[in-house]
Give the backbone structure.
Amino acid sequence: MWWLSRQSVCGRRLSPHGRCRGVTLIELLVVIGIIGFLIALLIPAVQAAREEARRSQCNNNLKQIGLGLQTYADIHKSFPYDALWGQHPDKPTFGVAGNTEQLTYHYPWTVAILPQFM
């Protein structure tokens, strides 16, 4: 039982100089392998959580659009047109001299429901 007398407080055998030996290369590689394995198990869970967050955000956006359409229909007693056309009051059409037509503008239906978003 001579080896028991050569153990230190660190629980390892002492070097010939009476100091604790450091971590061996094999122990370091095993720890790195375990950490890599745990990270490899964690990556799919993180990706699934990100995908679920994207899905819930998309559902929320669709819900907001639906609520905006319903609110618009309640206020105006009809759903918005697919496009809003009109004449711009301040800007004349550029072109032939003497042309007095106004520039027309076009807004999609999404602009009509913007005031209903909170």
Helices lie at 25-76, 109-112. The two ends are 80 Å apart (CA to CA).
